[in-house]
Specification:
Helix 5 runs antiparallel to helix 9. 27% of the residues lie in helices and 23% in strands. With 315 residues, the protein is of the alpha+beta class. The longest helix has 17 residues. The two termini are 33 Å apart. Strands 1, 2, 3, 4, 5, 6, 7, 8, 9 and 10 form a ten-stranded mixed sheet that branches.
Length: 315
């Protein structure tokens, strides 16, 4: 499958198999420093979703849906993504046959409303929205009788893939939607609903028994407090998207979340993950993507992939 070209030419993803080589942000550290990084170099390539990505998509979806992933037929979601051959994109580092490290796509909720997997996803979101005052507007927006055309955006990547890969993916998606609409495809959306996730960090109880030193969490990735706990983004781009949203909010997973210490998700902190939804008007997505490009510019010197011991696994 041919690679595609970034719309404004800042990032060349052309059909001649040229690659964009970028290196991650090098941070030298001494003993006792807050962050420990190893420098690696990777070549990122952007591809359309393809059949060989089926298992990789299921793994990314399992990560995106958190502890409630078992409530959905992930294979059916992956199949639906693959049916949209010219919509959405993946990021790989080992060529076309490699595993997808990142995924971004949009599903037409109304078009596929009778498919069991969409019924399950929307039913779940309606149930979760009923438990959250900040998400209650979704109850009418996603109601079966609603005339709204909602595009459900699914965006996920492995935790060591930097945010800088996201703006090009969103820009490609905007292009592809525009092309699809010109071809009379059913992608004239009134709203976009972005499915994401956040978490709250709680001090590890292991520290109380071992007296080991505690590293500080990265302050730049936190936003707000909840019951005295700091909130953090799994997807830093969400903080930018919030500025263009009609509303956003978190929801609790139905499936109990194992204790952070027992899962060893972080060395020094336990975590409480939550689902997170962002709703924006369709017209707001383009300026939001422009803001993402400014906040997370993809340049040859951009951080590509980090091997940070604090962030090396997913809660």
């Amino acid at each position: 499958m041919a690679k595609r070209k970034h719309a404004d030419g800042d990032l060349d993803i052309s059909e001649d198999d040229s690659e964009q080589e970028i290196s991650d942000l090098e941070e030298s550290s001494s003993e006792g420093s807050e962050d420990d990084y190893n420098e690696i170099k990777v070549d990122f390539e952007w591809f359309d979703p393809q059949q060989q990505d089926f298992e990789g998509f299921q793994m990314l979806l399992r990560q995106l849906f958190g502890t409630d992933a078992s409530l959905f037929h992930l294979g059916a979601v992956a199949d639906l993504i693959l049916e949209q051959k010219l919509l959405g994109s993946t990021v790989k580092t080992d060529g076309n046959e490699g595993d997808p490290h990142s995924l971004l796509t949009v599903l037409n909720v109304k078009q596929h409303k009778n498919r069991p997997v969409i019924k399950a996803l929307i039913g779940y979101l309606l149930d979760r929205a009923s438990t959250s005052s900040s998400l209650s507007p979704l109850l009418s927006l996603l109601a079966p009788s609603s005339d709204n055309e909602v595009g459900l955006i699914l965006s996920e990547r492995w935790v060591n893939i930097a945010t800088e890969v996201v703006p090009p993916m969103y820009e490609m998606l905007l292009e592809e939607i525009e092309w699809a609409v010109k071809d009379k495809e059913p992608y004239t959306f009134t709203h976009y609903l972005i499915w994401s996730k956040i978490y709250y960090a709680v001090p590890s109880t292991l520290d109380e028994t071992t007296n080991r030193p505690v590293k500080k969490m990265k302050p730049e990735s936190s936003k707000g407090l909840h019951d005295g706990q700091s909130m953090y983004y799994f997807h830093p781009e969400d903080e930018v998207l919030h500025r263009y949203a009609r509303f956003h909010g978190k929801f609790d997973y139905k499936t109990p979340v194992p204790e952070g210490d027992s899962r060893n998700a972080f060395q020094d902190f336990g975590v409480t993950p939550h689902g997170h939804l962002i709703l924006m008007d369709a017209a707001s997505l383009k300026p939001a993507v422009k803001a993402l490009k400014e906040e997370f510019p993809f340049l040859p010197s951009s951080p590509a992939m980090t091997m940070d011991e604090t962030w090396s696994s997913t809660p």
